Amino acid sequence: MPLKVLYSSMATEHLDAQAMRRLLAHARERNAARGISGVLIYYPCSGEIVQVLEGPKPAVLALLARPRADPRHQRMVVHFEAEIRERDLGKWPMGFLSASPDADEPDSEASREITLGARLKQFIRGAAPSGATLH
Fold it and tell me: For 56-93, what is each residue's pLDDT tens digit?
């Protein structure tokens, strides 16, 4: 059975749009190769990162160990971890949502068009976000 994990952490440094694009490109490639799907939410004002991961249990647990050992993360908390029957995020090796639209963010235009909550619901349902440039 696939495993779903929801965790949060605090970034030790601000991630600008370029850094976020690099991080997402790497995560998407790595996750696709390991059969992992997920979504990352970044709160630029506070530096909080919230991530949902789904996939084969060994692969998800191995990936979850990375931020725990990464000095760029602090105060990591796992909020939810459970085996699931079906994936909710099966179409995305790594979706991205910015919690506060900002000209500095990679998909600021899409963020202005639709609220974070509505976009997250779309990701969970597996529907492509309207107007999203990064999904």
Answer: 999 999 999 988 888 888 888 898 899 998 887 776 77
Q: What are the structure tokens assigned to 73, written together?
A: 């993360």
Cα–Cα nearest to 54, from 69, 36, 41: 36
Model pTM score: 0.72
Residue whose structure tokens are 């979504």: 39
Best CATH choice for the domain 2-125 from the list 3.40.50.410, 3.30.70.100, 1.10.3720.10, 3.30.230.70: 3.30.70.100
What does 88-128 look like in DSSP terms, one character per residue? Answer: SSTT-SSEEEESS--TTSTTHHHHHHS-HHHHHHHHHHTPP
Separation CA 127–CA 89 (nearest Å): 9
Tokens representing 135?
């999904």
